[in-house]
Amino acid sequence: MPQLDLAEVDHVALLSRLRLTDEEKSRFARDLNVILEQFEILQQLNTEGVAPTAHAMVLKNVFREDASRPSLPRADVLREAPEGRDEFFVVPRVVES
After folding, report:
1. Quick one: which of 11, 1, 6, 12 has its CA closest to 30?
2. 6-43 is classed in which CATH architecture?
């Protein structure tokens, strides 16, 4: 399998808008070549008859029944708040006017 050289790593860095030092380019070239070697091993696997999958396991959403139920009394909840006014929580202002 062809190995990535520093010029190709430099090109990928340019496309990614990354400024890399010469040391980083060398390290990434080594790391990317290891990754490409692993892909080469994977390409040797026989996948005949294996259906394409997006996940290794079958995923299924589990929904509970949407049933209304009583909530906590408002006065009890507001009593636990650091600061409350009327029927509302008072929170610090986050937007300047």
Report:
1. 6
2. Orthogonal Bundle (1.10)
Q: Per residue in 7-62, pLDDT tens?
A: 999 999 999 999 999 999 999 999 999 999 999 999 999 989 988 888 888 888 88
Spans of all domains in the chain: 6-43
pTM score of the predicted model: 0.50
| CB neighbour burial string for 6-16, b if at least 16 within 10 angstroms, e if fewer | eeebbebbeee
- In terms of C-beta density within 10 A (0-12 exposed, 13-18 middle, 19 or more buried), how is residue 83 classed? exposed
62-97 per-position pLDDT tens digit: 898 889 999 999 889 998 999 988 889 999 888 887
Rg (CA), the chain: 28
Two structure tokens written together for 54 = 């997006």
Question: Which residue blocks in 16-88 are alpha helix, DSSP H?
Answer: 22-43, 74-80
Rounded-to-integer distance, Cα 33 and Cα 75, Å:
63
